[in-house]
Amino acid sequence: MSPYGGVVGHNHASGANRTRLSIVLGIVVAVLAIEVVGAILTGSLALLADAGHMFSDTIGLIVALAATVIAARPATDRATFGFQRAEVLGALINGGILLAVSVAVGIQAVSRLIEPAGVEIQSLPMLVVASIGLVANIAAAVILRSRAATSINMRGAYLEVLGDMLGSIAAIVAAVIILATGFMPADAIASLAIALMIAPRAVFLLRDAVRVLGESVPVDTSVAEIRGHLLGTPGVVDVHDVHVWAITSGHPVFSAHVVVEDAVFAQQETGRLLDELSACLADHFDVDHSTFQLEPEEHAHHEEHFHD
């Protein structure tokens, strides 16, 4: 633990995340260049849409990379929990970029379906470029997948790449259809499908980021269940003023007022009880940072006047 309560292990995780993000960023930039050239040469909106998504990925990955660097900074007197919230802000920006790209691509796809531009799409080069993009996106997704569950910032980056992978698949399907049947609207339909695949993930990512920033109780945490566990600890009479929130994903914080039997104070067992309460939260709910205010029963009755 750092002097301000930060978890040292988080820095090691951030280092691993930075390495993975740097590798994926290199892959995405290379594929972006290939897809932009491919879209220009083939006239494919689907490739252009996927290139636009890849561009948003590039920005998003840079944001995610910067967020991991900032989040790894040690806690200070002014930022006592450290800078881990930077990861959530990075995820929020990524979600906004994803949503903006999906709306822009969707509008362009519908426009082309309503008023076909008469562009002759070179389906074979389109197929080759989309296939290169798919292989690269699969590699990037594999690199990020193992870290996506541990950090909302990494989840945002993973969703960016996953959206690209699905976009490449849609472009491949469109290229095959055009190559086999000459049905040019397949390109615009694939672009619309890409937009529809991106939008829900963007909304979910934004929702998760807002929940953390709004200091809501983490979705996988039950306050009632935590209170029940604490009440089962010998010497505990009541638990109130319970607060559970997260600094960033996977790092919940807990505080509560705990009413205890007078014997705990009389026998000087408050240290033992605090250890038991902290261990309970760490073992059952993965809460590493917990704060308890122990109160004798008579003080709890006095407090009722302040909480009515």
CATH class of the largest domain: Mainly Alpha
Radius of gyration: 26 Å
**Number of spatially distinct domains:** 2
Class inferred from helices and paired strands: mainly alpha
Reported by name, the CATH topology of the largest domain is: Alpha-lytic protease prodomain-like
Beta-sheet strand percentage? 5-15%
Contiguous uncertain segments of 5+ residues: 1-10
Shape: elongated
User: Count of helices?
Assistant: 10
Look at the structure and name the CATH superfamily of the largest domain. Cation efflux protein transmembrane domain
Total strand segments: 3
Strand order of the largest sheet: 1-2-3
Largest sheet: 3 strands, mixed
* H/E element sequence: HHHHHHHEEHHEH
Named at the architecture level, the CATH assignment of the largest domain is Up-down Bundle
Q: How far apart are the first and last residues' alpha carbons, in Å?
A: 37 Å
Mean pLDDT: 79
In helices, the fraction of residues equals over 70%
Fold topology:
Layout: H1 9-42, H2 45-71, H3 85-114, H4 123-148, H5 152-181, H6 185-213, H7 223-231, E1 236-246, E2 252-260, H8 262-266, H9 270-285, E3 289-296, H10 297-307
Parallel strand pairs: 2-3
Antiparallel strand pairs: 1-2
Helix pairs in contact: 1-2, 1-4, 2-3, 2-5, 2-6, 3-5, 3-6, 4-5, 5-6
Compact overview of the structure:
Helix content is 70%, strand content 9%. The chain contains ten helices and three strands.
